[in-house]
Amino acid sequence: MRLVDAANTMTPAYLAILSRGYSVRSEGGLMFAERAENSFAADGPVAVLGLIAMAEVRGEAWQASDEETDNFVQLFG
Fold first, then answer.
1. 3-state secondary structure (DSSP) of residue 22
2. What's the confidence (pLDDT) of residue 1?
């Protein structure tokens, strides 16, 4: 599979957010997805879904360590 963040991914990303039980609203140019105590905001549904996925994978310790940040910078500048 190959996906590229483009206009045709916005609706499927929105539907994926809804399928995870989040309510979705738009305010001040941002999209918000909220469920219980969790709230995620970004420019659009693909980015919001990415934040949700990051939280699911990394949990409350979502922030990168210094070593992880250094490795990322070495790879991608």
1. coil
2. 96
Question: Which residues on neighbouring strands pair with residue 35, listed in sequence order?
Answer: 38
pTM of the model: 0.92
Tokens describing residue 47: 């980015």
Element holding 55 (H helix, E strand)? helix 45-58
**What's the token pair of residue 37?**
């105590």
The string of pLDDT tens digits covering residues 37-57 is 999 999 999 999 999 999 999
Token readout for 53 is 């996925």
76 with 68: CB under 8 angstroms?
Answer: no
Measured distance CA(61)–CA(45) in Å, rounded: 23
Question: What tokens appear for 56 in the block?
Answer: 């699911």
What value does the CA radius of gyration of the chain take, rounded to a whole number of Å? 14
- Answer for the pair 48, 54: CB distance below 8 angstroms, yes or no: no
